Amino acid sequence: MSDEDRMTLAPTEIYGRSDEEQQNGPKIWRRKTEAPPGNCLVYSLTIIVIVFAVCLILSIIFLRISKPEIETVSISTRDLLFSGNSSNPYFNATLVSDISIRNSNFGAFEFEDSSLRIVYADHGAVGETTIGGRRVEAHKTVRVTGIEAEIGSFRLLNTRGLDSDLRSGFLELTSVAEVRGRIKVMGRRKWKIGVMSCTMRLNLNGRFIQNLLCD
Question: What segment(s) does the record annotate as region Disordered (predicted)?
Fold first, then answer.
């Protein structure tokens, strides 16, 4: 057999591993199970923000203090007398009112004695009475009944146009009241003033109140 027909089975070159590979061996990749410190900081800040938001929402709901709502529920007349005589026009009557006071807060509302005034058009007050002080519990509505106010034209300094209004059979009146008291919510006390303004028309011939409207 000639030398050309012989096959060389051994590699002509031998590649050895580097010294690093020989010393450290092959690299093995493992999944990391511990979260990096940066992620822990993000989680902590997120929890703090959520807790702060919840506390803020609760404080807005429970600590917000709003003024009480007051309105006239019904009003009637009694002992009505009037005259449209141009030389001596006058009217006298007793108005009997029922009002409601609504407290929408999470704490009780305690108010002092307050005044209720009856005003005739833009001429001024023609009567005044007192609303007795009391306590309205949280999220409750109290109805105060039988509030009597004596009204009369003798209180007016200016009676211009009164005779024509009396002859028409109608008087435009307004009832105005301010109820001032304290509301206590979770240790906080705050003064609040509830304001009522109701317009109405006194029907002289029918002797009743009509078109009652409260703001």
Answer: 1-26
